[in-house]
Amino acid sequence: MNETDRRTAEGILYTDEYQLTMAQLYFRAGLHVRPAQFDHFFRTYPAYDGHQAGFCVNAGMGWLLDWMHGAAFRPEDIDCLRSTRNRAGQPVFGDDFLAWLAGNSPGFFDSLTIRAVPEGRVVHPNTPLTVVEGPLAVAQILETSLLSHLNYQTLVATKAARIKDSARGRVVMEFGLRRGQEKGANAGARAALIGGVDFTSNVGISHVLGFPPKGTHAHSMVQVFMSLGMSELAAFRAFADVYPDDCLLLVDTIDTLHSGIPNAITVFEELRRKGHQPSGIRMDSGDLAYLSIQAARMLNDAGFPDASIVLSNDLDELVIWQIITQISEEAARYGVDADHLINRLVYGVGTRLITSWGEPALGGVYKLVAVQDGGKWVPAIKISESAEKTPNPGNKRLWRLYDRRCKATADLISLDDEDPREAARITLRHPTDHARYRALERADLCEIEPLLVEVFREGRASEPAPIDEMRARRKADVERLDAGVKRLVNPHIYHVSLTQNLWDLKQKLIESAMQRSH
Amino acid sequence: MNETDRRTAEGILYTDEYQLTMAQLYFRAGLHVRPAQFDHFFRTYPAYDGHQAGFCVNAGMGWLLDWMHGAAFRPEDIDCLRSTRNRAGQPVFGDDFLAWLAGNSPGFFDSLTIRAVPEGRVVHPNTPLTVVEGPLAVAQILETSLLSHLNYQTLVATKAARIKDSARGRVVMEFGLRRGQEKGANAGARAALIGGVDFTSNVGISHVLGFPPKGTHAHSMVQVFMSLGMSELAAFRAFADVYPDDCLLLVDTIDTLHSGIPNAITVFEELRRKGHQPSGIRMDSGDLAYLSIQAARMLNDAGFPDASIVLSNDLDELVIWQIITQISEEAARYGVDADHLINRLVYGVGTRLITSWGEPALGGVYKLVAVQDGGKWVPAIKISESAEKTPNPGNKRLWRLYDRRCKATADLISLDDEDPREAARITLRHPTDHARYRALERADLCEIEPLLVEVFREGRASEPAPIDEMRARRKADVERLDAGVKRLVNPHIYHVSLTQNLWDLKQKLIESAMQRSH
Description:
The structure is a homodimer. By secondary structure, chain A is α/β, with parallel strands linked by helices. Chain A is built from 18 helices and 23 strands. In chain A, the strands form six sheets. In chain A, strands 15-14-1-7-5-21-22 form a seven-stranded antiparallel β-sheet, with helices on one face. In chain A, β18 and β19 form a beta hairpin. In chain A, α2 packs antiparallel against α6 (136-166), α7 crosses α16 and α12 packs across α13 (317-330). The longest helix of chain A has 31 residues, at 136-166. The two termini of chain A are 51 Å apart. At the A-B interface, α1, α2, α6, α7 and α8 of A face α1, α2, α6, α7 and α8 of B.
């Protein structure tokens, strides 16, 4: 795609056609500037090959706000829309509507106000993660881009948080650029860093975000030397010559145990004699648990107990968990201390992180929850085939309740005029099952925290937080989760509840919608 | 990401760190301008939840060539690289190497020659889809971007071809923008069109590629009207007023059979009286096979046998196949002609196409196959843990053999100096199993077609083909596949073979590499 085309494809026309046809309809019906409110939320945690997550990590807003900044229906965009024909060969979009789009550009989205849960925070299903308020047609046109920016980054930040947890906090590197959805992999690298990955091999995005990119060499380097009549050892020596202080050698081009590791040790000894400390080895194939133990034994015997052992090759949180489990059980019989080995492991995670393997999309949605009529908010409701899919109506607030241990015990959705911090007793209603609720005394709680923060108003985005701050939020939030919620397989289900008032409103609306429709 | 950062993240630093560290090593070893050849290929077909495809559709080269055009290590990029520090706090990249990168910019890749299988062609595993030849360090630095551009588009074009086939050639629309990997969804929409999808809802990319974007309305439109005290019927009427010639109504906001379809029929009758032909209905939830039959019955009874029935909601090739199967078996008992109904169905395919659900990445790789030494090409080989993963060495050509019915019967990889069209008898060797081969007489074949075409030389890319031409290639190639190869589940395995000479070379290299490594 050339640069002109890219501006068309990634500018304000980065949207679905129906957003524009609906916007024109609202324009014709005089409803386009009617204040409306949309909630963005997801309905279920990702379930990786059936293993449902117990929490998600919110991400993506920073880049959405960048995209919104100065967004405009440029003359070129208007020309595109003007050229769109219906089945009868007539223009789909009228000049009046196109003039309105152009007349509100640049800064087309400046009339919106957005509240959101900050990036890096742990989040749960069916809670408003982003609340967009403003003219109906403007808020409608934002939908696709908002979902595109938030769904994917939240998906990857979540997967990264699981991987980091499974790696017991050891260094994890993101290697997925070649296996992502083209330029989307940059968003994936950002989300991976927010979610807990420590570095990425992606050079450009590392520099943009202020993280040092990481990488060593590929099999091809060894092959080049061998093709020219030289050996793996010569290739390793050449690498050590150029990178004596970052000498991390890929040892599985020929034979890991009989060629790669012995040759690496030879080079490490040469480096040590020259006063350099070798960095370590990487293994990208074979039985990584078994090979790690053997590599540790060989490196220990040669006097390199601190050399890192980097593992890569289709890793994800379950594979890492299994590798660590096997090492814990087997290392001792080879004379290797399991904990010492586990603490020198480093993980390179590619395909399965960047694609969120097992569940490659997050089903985040953007639903109308209220429209103003006569200066008053009227809650909107959609009666779906299932109670679970019926969104929570109206203008709302989101709270996190921490129990006496200061562990998060529930997320609570209230009406906009409710503040549970002021109540002595809080009733938590299950979002769909009328028989299930629990009551908490204020004294049972260590904290009630509001989660939504204003991020955009009158064309101004809030100051972007550094990635490190988002990482710190994630770390703090994950630590305040119950261990059961963090379990990789079959986690405990975190409570998401409604206040009694919101529950009552939802029931009333469902009833009246059902009556009107029958 | 702002515009300055985007140029850094999507320019020539859109790569993995190790490409640059290896390039510097080659530079220091005086090997950086040594002519080398890399093959791009994938090793296995995607297996969607275990259902392995029987063919792939090649895509992505056009955008890779756009990315390569004028690619440069700009001063800003050089500054990024200069700032990279090793563990000892010293610069990773030396001024000599950085000067070489900058000195060969813009047009950094202009010294490469690229041959490739054209976009839209059916392709198979372990065959060279792209062959890159040129200075070792330059070809190495291209790797990540090449894989990023080709892997994902080939993945989606393949999925789209399966979906189009399963839809029996009916109209399929791509709806996945909100569920892709952010801006990568634009590449997905392009690939979906190459693979067989007819339209996309993605506005910007539609205009860039010259396809009309498609879309109707969302549930939110009905909700707006209901929130303001009006009805679903009022919303439908408003839509019909603005779009009388494209009136496609979403009927499942409240109750598909008891509200949506009856209201749509009311509006369709009003449109007909005004001389317009209604377009149809869309259903996005519920049992789509059952509802399709009921919708057809109701629309037929009301005198709208030509109104389309658009289905959406997590569709993919297997879901569509099941819907069509159920309609075939059940429609008659409700007085609906199954074939007539199947021919009015239209499919909106979102998440499962854009993410290639079930196998969200194609494992395309880029492997060194030859290096020049003393003016002669020396084949390179990597001995992996499995024979299947050992790449085919050397400078090669790729051929497709068509049998007497003019169906594709095998892809044949030969050495560069071989032309099977000149042989009376061709031996096809299995790529790894020495006991398996077959012989074909030239008279058994209707055609032997070379598949690789030069697409880039001396800084000039070949004229890009229009998407329609790529679509035509795909259609023709899919028609020349045996039915068994196209089967969605458990397809017949297409033959990929080596010539006797290539087989002999590969065995010789494996043997000598094994000897050297032990």
